[in-house]
Amino acid sequence: MSNPVFGLLPGDRALVVAPHPDDETIGPGGTIARLAAEGVEVHVLCVTVRTAKMYGSESVTSVRAEEFAKACAALGVTDSVIAWPDETGELDICNRQRALVDLIERHEQVSLATVRPKALFIPSAGGFHQDHQAVHRAAFAAARMHGPGGKPTPSIVLGYRGVEDRWSALSEEWWAHVDTSAHWETKQEALRAYGTQMRASGPRSVEQVRLIDAAAGSSLAVDHAETFVPYRLAY
Amino acid sequence: MSNPVFGLLPGDRALVVAPHPDDETIGPGGTIARLAAEGVEVHVLCVTVRTAKMYGSESVTSVRAEEFAKACAALGVTDSVIAWPDETGELDICNRQRALVDLIERHEQVSLATVRPKALFIPSAGGFHQDHQAVHRAAFAAARMHGPGGKPTPSIVLGYRGVEDRWSALSEEWWAHVDTSAHWETKQEALRAYGTQMRASGPRSVEQVRLIDAAAGSSLAVDHAETFVPYRLAY
Amino acid sequence: MSNPVFGLLPGDRALVVAPHPDDETIGPGGTIARLAAEGVEVHVLCVTVRTAKMYGSESVTSVRAEEFAKACAALGVTDSVIAWPDETGELDICNRQRALVDLIERHEQVSLATVRPKALFIPSAGGFHQDHQAVHRAAFAAARMHGPGGKPTPSIVLGYRGVEDRWSALSEEWWAHVDTSAHWETKQEALRAYGTQMRASGPRSVEQVRLIDAAAGSSLAVDHAETFVPYRLAY
Amino acid sequence: MSNPVFGLLPGDRALVVAPHPDDETIGPGGTIARLAAEGVEVHVLCVTVRTAKMYGSESVTSVRAEEFAKACAALGVTDSVIAWPDETGELDICNRQRALVDLIERHEQVSLATVRPKALFIPSAGGFHQDHQAVHRAAFAAARMHGPGGKPTPSIVLGYRGVEDRWSALSEEWWAHVDTSAHWETKQEALRAYGTQMRASGPRSVEQVRLIDAAAGSSLAVDHAETFVPYRLAY
Amino acid sequence: MSNPVFGLLPGDRALVVAPHPDDETIGPGGTIARLAAEGVEVHVLCVTVRTAKMYGSESVTSVRAEEFAKACAALGVTDSVIAWPDETGELDICNRQRALVDLIERHEQVSLATVRPKALFIPSAGGFHQDHQAVHRAAFAAARMHGPGGKPTPSIVLGYRGVEDRWSALSEEWWAHVDTSAHWETKQEALRAYGTQMRASGPRSVEQVRLIDAAAGSSLAVDHAETFVPYRLAY
Amino acid sequence: MSNPVFGLLPGDRALVVAPHPDDETIGPGGTIARLAAEGVEVHVLCVTVRTAKMYGSESVTSVRAEEFAKACAALGVTDSVIAWPDETGELDICNRQRALVDLIERHEQVSLATVRPKALFIPSAGGFHQDHQAVHRAAFAAARMHGPGGKPTPSIVLGYRGVEDRWSALSEEWWAHVDTSAHWETKQEALRAYGTQMRASGPRSVEQVRLIDAAAGSSLAVDHAETFVPYRLAY
């Protein structure tokens, strides 16, 4: 399994779209770290974060932005942004479907237009969270194929898993796997950057993420792996 | 989660159909142990075992029958049988579909007719192994609903997972879960009874089965669990 | 089929989430009646009802609230509420996805937080009605598994059918069945409480609901039954 | 709903492939009767019947052949045949996949080659019975599209339901419906021709078939209907 | 394949619901032309069009309305309307689900209530575009079956394909096919009416639409065809 | 789209399993040619060919073996074999499921054991032909993941399409695409090597294969492409 991951080569670019800070780490964090280590530039577009009480502790926008920056740095991300920070907690991205598509296509700092990525990582369709579903639909639409001279089209589109996404009534085909054994330590470091989000036990604990990655690894006969839905693989 | 498992009560009976010895342990072993501990009688009908070289070591029919008996004893199984021991290695159950249905319906020692179970455990549809598919189809057919006065019909039919069944192109709905944390030790003991089958590492190791059960448990916030496809739950 | 329904025991609690009054009766009404008769407390959270002209007659919020109360009483419901009565007809719950999740998680009278139910009944995913889809998605999200010390998580989550939901392009697995033969009379009484909603013939007639329940029963060899999608069964 | 059924016109021909006698009546019997009444020629190819003890009574090949002839006559079938009568009970059609395809393509009396039908009715894919699955696969293969000058290809291919086929783990899209209200009496007469097969109650009773057709009708707002999986509709 | 298309007869009416101008032509244009040529009245309800910069050129509402009228005339459409022209570009139909259902049910010029069609053509479920998904859901809901005396219900409901809809994560069953070989020239003329929308090459070129129709034709052994998802076929 | 195809590098090996001669060319022929041109060794294991009258002309085993050799040579295949030539026409591979798995795992000349390929190409699951289904199932089983020290496991497993496989009732996810524009001429040459199999028109004509590849290409905005089901992509 020493072939280039999905055929991506040093100098190629990947774009990861995350609904909220930590989604990029919990799902594809090990793969980001491996790609970065292999010379692929990874950019992360995080859609939003809001100030809210959540899981017993407070989630302050500015604190979460710092956590996000720290996690991205740990993973070796080239560039990252939180597009719509929401200090009042009133933004409901489910009702902004058209604007979401535009954001992913054309955000001035991190988007399909500016990064022109070979590979695009998006939340998988089966996540139960309404924001993940909205971002999935928008990113999927943005990833459609364009004709010559049209908008940039990523050759590779992969759906990643959210922390609680095994709770889903939608079966998807998790056919793509990346051996992230050598990058588990890095992923763990990035997870720990999310002090306000991760818990000591339960679905949002480092231990649970490790267990999921270990189980994914076991089906490849390696220590840790991440799995993806391969929406498009074009060569 | 202290409710009776699938509503089964002490004195109720369950029938587990296993293609080969060890399938009853690797998949639903913890659930068998829990049911037995809660007073439900569990019977196991194992279809066949053959003398063959396999995974580097020899698999002798008589040795495997002993392993099976030992594992069933560890799990607390009431009665068990290997219906078609195959010493010559020439039996291909894929070509005996009709006989397989008859076997599951009417074997004189352990079958739907003799056990008259409330619950039936069968291999899930998505297993890649041709024998598992054949047994799934036959057991599913045998489990059809009969009218009053007709053959006995199990109210509950559950599909269990094989050790390598994550390798499947068929999505099934793994919606039923049993917390087997208190019975992992027992399942481990039964797994270890299969000296000729289990390996030190890889898909057929105790460690890998533990990892799968731990990952299933993590989605319930418990230590270990087993998951099932709930083909029928009738109350 | 005398086992406890889904393993629920006297004293256990169930929560039914209904988009509008009558959904709780048309779909799972017989099951509610059976559970209540077997000592399980059933609570009903109805999301909304609006004043509107509908099917030729007028639907007045206050009248429908009375019908709802009467139907719930007939079924033996412990507590029930209509959360968002909409007298102006301007509420579009499709655009309030986040608020809907909060409602189901935390409504002060009838919600996951106050009832802490073992079983949760929600509209199935395949209903064609936009409000049913919105409530399905919100209730499904609210039902996700939480870690120890987190929000209450129902062990059992079932999707019920709407009156016209055979008109669906989404296949779901209707694998759970409840024999409601002994409770058909009660369900019929509750249906008749909906004077403004039920028609003399066609999809919204008592006769059609009876036919659907009788057909469901026939596949179990009983007189009447209700069927469900078993999204989660955890023991 | 007075349009020609699936666009079939007087003088057009239909071929129904039935695994055993009675399958043509229980599933699409009302539709056969309606087509015949509207001037469409219907031919029935029944694959096999065997002498066997079944459901408590004996099933003698010659008796069942008479029942089949009587039922076909009642429905208005133009021509019918039982291709492989099996007096010894040793034929296992599951192991004769290639011969089955040949049979459906080229049987000298009733087949695609001799009837050259516009419409082909086959068992749906989801039947649990191994013989129904074998006939489905073979008929589906035989129905493939041929080029100009090649074998005859039916423009319309429909899957019909078996009596117990709601017991299925395979979801199919039952999108085609035929109002058979005016032909229920005829179907009932054909059902009654099967004296050795039909029971007084349970899945194989006239009453249960009526209930299924009535429930199918209710979703069209008519008295009785039959539903089909529309594998191909080419115009 | 000279049977009446889906059984529709001269004088019958069909309604096509299109999210934006050109959807009615790119997807089912050849079928519209064939139906019109065979005496079936076809009405087109186009939901919206907005003034926007798109694919490099400007899309002016009034210009697009002219293109739409010209294309409909070429196809032989009886009546057509753009319901919600959006000159400011601020309308987001995704947030108007309830109003969309009302529009399709009751628009005063072209709707289910005024046309009372036998056949309804709607965007298929799998389109990636958020507007197509919203119109699909609303049209599907509007097409539900009503009882006698209720709203008009189309007997036939077909999903058509959008130009870029092969980019979809939702598998649908494209089981219905219409031979449009004799009407390709007409479809091409209608496509060319969309001067601001069609491109010289790529997904939105006449050549690409031709290729898709030719490939669809090849699976029927004809020159050109269009394929549909048959959501309902009731006779 | 100049990245290495599926990440395969010069010197890597691929194994193509074909039920009969010509399946390797009609489905993945352009991809074989491209891989070979890029330095990947491609080996082809063809299961069987029989002497039979077919499509009006005679199919002689020895002639077809020559055609196969010629086509493989044109595509740049390194090594190829027909494992079970069947001169009597009596072999029914559907009844030899276990032997088929063994063949693909251990054939002495071209198999998983001898080639130890990075990538494995197998018939997709949805083919209607009984032989293709049998080979799919066997090859899928043979491709399961083995532990360290076990049998060789291909990291990449792809399902390819048969010439008539759009006639299928099984939806699969055709998410992988290879731009074969530069290799269409080579594929055409290989197709033409099959003098006894290809027809002047219809599904088995060079023109129809070209149309399918052109339509597949159009969704990538290239001239020709081949599409695959990505059962496993492990890196």
Kindly summarize this structure in a few lines.
Chain A has a seven-stranded mixed sheet with strand order 5-2-1-6-7-9-8, sandwiched between helices. Chain A has a two-stranded antiparallel ribbon with strand order 3-4. In chain A, strand 3 and strand 4 form a beta hairpin. The two termini of chain A are 19 Å apart.
Mean pLDDT of chain A: 93
Q: With helices defined by DSSP (H or I, 4 residues minimum), what is the helix count of chain A?
A: 8
Q: What is the fourth-level CATH superfamily of chain A?
A: LmbE-like
**CATH class category of chain A:** Alpha Beta
Which structural class matches the secondary elements of chain A? alpha/beta
Instruction: Please state the CA-atom Rg of chain A, rounded to the nearest Å.
Output: 16 Å
CATH architecture of chain A: 3-Layer(aba) Sandwich
Order of helices and strands of chain A: EHHEEEHEHHEHEEHHE
GO biological process, one term (chains A, B, C, D, E, F): glycoside metabolic process
InterPro entries (chains A, B, C, D, E, F): GlcNAc_PI_deacetylase-related, LmbE-like_dom_sf
Keywords (chains A, B, C, D, E, F): Zinc
GO molecular function (chains A, B, C, D, E, F): hydrolase activity, acting on carbon-nitrogen (but not peptide) bonds, in linear amides
